[in-house]
Inverse folding.
């Protein structure tokens, strides 16, 4: 095998092949961008978004897709990473960004008018990231949404424009997949589901199925309940190349404050055996009974420690190891995730 390895490198170049036991094996996904969004990291099963890969969040209207992206964008910009928002729906606002703690100093906003512009601008950002962004800083792009942006042919009134959307999307993601990995850029794409009138109780995705093939992680959002104050949603990892798929969690999205992690933390606490017994809204921990909010607060640190057992990518604003040890922090948000600190 050693001789074959040497001959292959000599013929096709040093970067054309690598050994499976190399520490720098480019096929492995070892770097993750912490999101401080427990529900997302719990469903993915890793301490954040995979760096250099594509993540899709899809579902029907009003299922919290943009809220998940806003929460992620808030965490990464506060941590010192660079976030780029491709706002094709023109739906984000300053009040929305403020609620999710997005640091606008580290945020760029683009509003591509066509599918062609979307992929051209995204490819430009990926190529620039290789030379302009150095570790531990990373670039994360949110496209909200792929389905909303028209093709140039549609804008010009061509009747075949809608058919071109799926073709251009497929072609664009074939190119982007390599660029994301080579330049260590992560991208989150939002997609919409629509009811299929020809087939009752079935759905189809606007813009074709390109993301089904190219996404490393696909998150499906489903609305379970709606009230005047919040939505109860279910999130499922229907595709996952970085951990086991089909993990799901139910959570509340409050209109005034955003994502409430209480229910997911209790679910994880049960899975990790941090909760002895649950009955009628009461949770027994260490022989004592607690209400849901109290129990979630009590086990939050333990849940985060187990979830984030794999060390994520170091953060630009992260405290040094010695500083963390000296401070003896008990903040569960700082256990293996983003430690927001301005040095």
């Amino acid at each position: 095998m050693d001789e074959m390895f040497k001959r292959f490198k000599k013929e096709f170049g040093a970067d054309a092949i690598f050994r499976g036991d190399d520490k720098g094996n480019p096929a492995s996904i070892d770097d993750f961008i912490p999101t401080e969004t427990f529900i997302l990291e719990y469903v993915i099963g890793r301490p954040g978004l995979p760096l250099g890969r594509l993540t899709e969040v899809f579902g029907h209207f009003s299922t919290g897709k943009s809220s998940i992206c806003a929460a992620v964008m808030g965490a990464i910009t506060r941590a010192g990473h660079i976030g780029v928002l491709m706002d094709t729906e023109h739906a984000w606002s300053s009040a929305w960004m403020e609620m999710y703690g997005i640091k606008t100093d580290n945020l760029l906003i683009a509003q591509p008018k066509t599918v062609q512009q979307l992929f051209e601008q995204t490819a430009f950002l990926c190529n620039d990231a290789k030379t302009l962004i150095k570790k531990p800083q990373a670039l994360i792009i949110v496209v909200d949404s792929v389905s909303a942006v028209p093709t140039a042919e549609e804008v010009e009134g061509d009747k075949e424009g809608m058919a071109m959307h799926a073709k251009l999307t497929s072609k664009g993601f074939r190119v982007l997949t390599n660029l994301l990995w080579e330049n260590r850029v992560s991208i989150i794409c939002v997609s919409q589901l629509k009811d299929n009138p020809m087939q009752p109780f079935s759905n189809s995705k606007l813009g074709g199925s390109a993301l089904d093939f190219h996404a490393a992680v696909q998150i499906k959002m489903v609305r379970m309940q709606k009230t005047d104050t919040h939505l109860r949603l279910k999130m499922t990892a229907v595709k996952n190349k970085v951990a086991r798929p089909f993990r799901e969690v139910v959570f509340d999205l409050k209109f005034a404050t955003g994502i409430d992690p209480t229910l997911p933390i209790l679910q994880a606490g049960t899975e990790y055996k941090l909760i002895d017994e649950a009955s009628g809204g009461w949770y027994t921990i260490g022989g004592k009974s607690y209400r849901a909010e109290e129990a979630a607060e009590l086990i939050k640190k333990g849940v985060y420690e187990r979830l984030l057992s794999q060390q994520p990518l170091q953060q630009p604003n992260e405290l040094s190891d010695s500083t963390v040890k000296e401070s003896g922090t008990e903040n569960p948000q700082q256990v293996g995730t983003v430690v927001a600190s301005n040095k």
User: Anything to note?
Assistant: The CA atoms of residues 37 and 236 lie 14 Å apart. DSSP finds eleven helices and 15 strands in the chain. The radius of gyration is 21 Å. Residues 32-258 form a domain with the Rossmann fold fold (CATH 3.40.50.300).
